[in-house]
């Protein structure tokens, strides 16, 4: 089931959209707190976002820009401010489509279906793992923190992935080695230490000192 996030402050429109998405087999979520759009985006992890331009606190362009820092998820702008300048700006900000209000719900559903088909028919879902503002994009092997991006090597990415998937839990060295090399046999234990040390140095460069903690004799942990 595809999940769709609705960032719309008109409760009537938002409810209509959510109800119709449900009828078509989608899971819709309406933003509750317009100061925490990114927090709800990361928690819900949608496959598509419907975004109004005029919103409380920050406008849709702001949130589109913030989402684009961490994800390539399809974004449809739905707005009554539908002049050419807003349409062009929306596309330039990273939106995939634009629909003017008032819109026909059938047209909106058709646009959503087409966009989902184009985006996910040839690729899997772009997942995101997050902990305390640290965001790992699984589709691009990029880690983001405070507007800073970090490109990771294959091993660094796999270490971050297994630790974030098990945040607040200690992950044993054996489990990490198996995740990296599909076996904990015939691998020098020091090789893992070297990889973790290199990753920690990269994390420190973007102000993430001690993000990965060592549990002596056991393994590593993020959080907790």
UniProtKB/TrEMBL annotation:
Response regulatory domain: residues covered: 3-116
Stretches assigned to the OmpR/PhoB-type domain: 126-224
Domain of life of the organism encoding this protein: Bacteria
Residues that bear 4-aspartylphosphate: 52
Statement: the UniProt record of this protein carries the keyword Electron transport: no
A GO term for molecular function: transcription cis-regulatory region binding
SUPFAM superfamilies: C-terminal effector domain of the bipartite response regulators, CheY-like
GO cellular component term of the entry, any: cytosol
Keyword vocabulary terms for this entry: DNA-binding, Phosphoprotein, Transcription, Transcription regulation
Listed SMART domains: REC (SM00448), Trans_reg_C (SM00862)
DNA-binding region: 126-224
UniProt-listed GO biological process terms: regulation of DNA-templated transcription
Record flagged with keyword Transcription: yes
Protein function: May play the central regulatory role in sporulation. It may be an element of the effector pathway responsible for the activation of sporulation genes in response to nutritional stress. Spo0A may act in concert with spo0H (a sigma factor) to control the expression of some genes that are critical to the sporulation process.
Protein name: Stage 0 sporulation protein A homolog
Organism of derivation: Clostridium bornimense
Lineage, opening ranks: Bacteria, Bacillati, Bacillota, Clostridia, Eubacteriales
């Amino acid at each position: 089931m595809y999940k769709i996030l609705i960032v719309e402050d008109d409760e009537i429109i938002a409810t209509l959209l959510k109800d119709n998405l449900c009828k078509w087999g989608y899971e819709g979520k309406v933003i509750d707190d317009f100061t925490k759009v990114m927090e709800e985006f990361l928690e819900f992890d949608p496959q598509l976002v419907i975004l109004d331009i005029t919103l409380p606190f920050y406008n849709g362009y702001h949130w589109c820009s913030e989402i684009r820092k961490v994800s390539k998820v399809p974004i449809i702008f739905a707005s009554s401010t539908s002049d050419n300048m807003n349409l062009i700006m929306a596309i330039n900000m990273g939106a995939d489509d634009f629909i003017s209000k008032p819109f026909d719900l059938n047209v909106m559903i058709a646009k959503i279906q087409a966009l989902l088909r184009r985006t996910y028919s040839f690729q899997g879902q772009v997942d995101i793992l997050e902990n305390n503002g640290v965001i790992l994009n699984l589709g691009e092997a990029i880690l983001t923190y405070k507007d800073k991006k970090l490109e990771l090597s294959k091993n660094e990415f796999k270490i971050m992935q297994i630790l974030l998937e098990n945040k607040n839990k200690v992950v044993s060295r054996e489990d990490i080695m198996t995740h990296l090399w599909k076996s904990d046999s015939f691998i020098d234990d020091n090789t893992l230490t070297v990889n973790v040390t290199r990753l920690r140095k990269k994390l420190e460069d973007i102000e993430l000192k001690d993000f990965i903690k060592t549990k002596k004799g056991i393994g590593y942990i993020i959080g907790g």
